[in-house]
Amino acid sequence: MRAHTTRTALLVAAAATFALAACGGDGDDDDSGGPQAPPDSGDLAVTSPAFGGGEPIPVEYTCDGSEELPPLAIEGAPADAAELAVVVRDPDADGFVHWVVAGLPADTTEIASGPAMPEGTGDPALPEGAVEANNGFGEPGWAGPCPPEGNHTYELTVYALAESSGLAAGAEAEDGARAVEDTEALATATLRGTYERG
């Protein structure tokens, strides 16, 4: 009887562990299993005046604040890039997509902070010609960090693309992210920030 009870307990524990991993956990586990940002390459660099690499993302850029688009500074993009694109994922939540934008001119050096999009009209901080996919919540534009609990890392990756990604406005989040990630990149750079809830 004791052996049966022990075996049952082990099976329940294993099932719970699997379920936690499938949901992305609470962000405290380094082995998330979600899509990871590519290694930085070339001279491309991305920073933010709002937070440093590896630092907490200020609350105003999250679901607990006004959910503004965080400001970004971009340097070193190859002059022969067809366009720049940005994909923001949460690898601690199986790569949940928080933002996809493409069609940024190769000479873009900053993306200004802006309020959340009014009724899907487009992020006001973006240059003309920029195209946004839906985020993982099924809405266009930026979705601020909003983990259910724990400390999550957010990867803001800039891609200097060799050719147009062909991103369609309003594309589903994962389709939009893949449209950028699967296009040949001349250079990439990632800024990582964190946010904790619960």
Report on this structure.
- The structure is a single chain.
- The chain has helices at residues 2-22, 173-181; strands at 45-47, 72-75, 83-90, 96-104, 110-111, 131-132, 150-161, 185-197.
- It has a five-stranded antiparallel sheet with strand order 6-4-3-7-8, covered by helices on one side. It has a three-stranded antiparallel sheet with strand order 1-2-5, with no helix packed on it.
- With 198 residues, it is an alpha+beta fold.
- 15% of the residues lie in helices and 27% in strands.
- A hairpin with a 5-residue loop joins strand 3 (83-90) and strand 4 (96-104).
- It is globular.
List the helices and strands and how they pair.
Elements: H1 2-22, E1 45-47, E2 72-75, E3 83-90, E4 96-104, E5 110-111, E6 131-132, E7 150-161, H2 173-181, E8 185-197
Antiparallel strand pairs: 1-2, 2-5, 3-4, 3-7, 4-6, 7-8
Short structural summary:
This protein has 198 residues and is an alpha+beta fold. Helix content is 15%, strand content 27%.
Q: What CATH architecture do you see? A: Alpha-Beta Complex
Q: How would a crystallographer describe the biggest sheet?
A: 5 strands, antiparallel
Low-confidence stretches: 1-32
**Estimated radius of gyration:** 19 Å
Shape: globular
Give the SSE order as H and E letters.
Answer: HEEEEEEEHE
How many helices? 2
Total beta-strand segments:
8
Q: What percentage of amino acids are in beta strands? A: 25-35%
Q: Helicity level, as a percent range?
A: 10-25%
Estimate the mean pLDDT confidence.
Answer: 83
Classification by helices and strands: alpha+beta
- What is the domain tally? 1
Give the full name of the CATH homologous superfamily.
PEBP-like
Termini separation:
39 Å
